[in-house]
Design goal:
By secondary structure, the chain is α/β, with parallel strands linked by helices. The chain has a single domain, classed as 3-Layer(aba) Sandwich (Rossmann fold), CATH 3.40.50. 36% of the residues lie in helices and 19% in strands. The chain has a 5-stranded parallel beta sheet with strand order 2-1-3-4-5, covered by helices on one side. Helix 1 packs parallel to helix 4. It is globular and about 45 Å long. The mean pLDDT is 82.
Length: 152
């Protein structure tokens, strides 16, 4: 079982994170790596400041992993609507995926950074739980993949 975690622009500096103010991307990566090792999941954890690179990673090999966790942007990052749509379009595949955000992006005043809306695909959504957003996504995807394996 292989999982890909992609992190987009604005996540290198998480000092403004409301849900988890002492967090860093290195801490998140270490926690994700530890959880995946416990679950027997191979993890590929990536970060880019470039939305074009994020889209390229999503498009290049969807069959190369079994599940995807995606944090498309940090709270302070300005990602254009066109870039958000390109990311959403790149999610149109059969790989189960969860979009995660550290902060509660659905809170008042943050409507412009709502969830991605791919036209098809299997995309869940978790926000506002700090680093636990990632942990819950990994656990949920792991359970989903286990259930699919049992049905096969």
């Amino acid at each position: 079982m292989k999982m890909l975690i992609l992190n987009g622009p604005g996540l290198a500096d998480l000092s403004g994170c409301e849900a988890d103010p002492d967090i860093s991307l290195k801490v998140i990566e270490a926690a994700c790596t530890q959880l995946c090792a416990t679950l027997g999941v191979d993890l590929d954890f990536r970060y880019t400041q470039d939305t074009q690179q994020l889209t390229t990673w999503l498009e290049e090999n969807p069959e190369g992993y079994d599940a995807l966790v995606l944090n498309p942007q940090g709270a302070q990052s300005a990602v254009s609507q066109a870039d958000r749509q390109a990311i959403a379009n790149a999610l149109d595949n059969e790989v189960p995926a969860v979009e995660v955000h550290l902060d509660h992006i659905l809170a008042a005043g943050k409507e412009a950074t709502g969830p991605l809306r791919p036209s098809k695909g299997n995309l869940g959504f978790i926000c506002g739980l700090g680093m636990q957003s990632y942990m819950l996504a990994i656990k949920a995807l792991h359970r989903q993949l286990q259930a699919q394996a049992l049905q096969s």
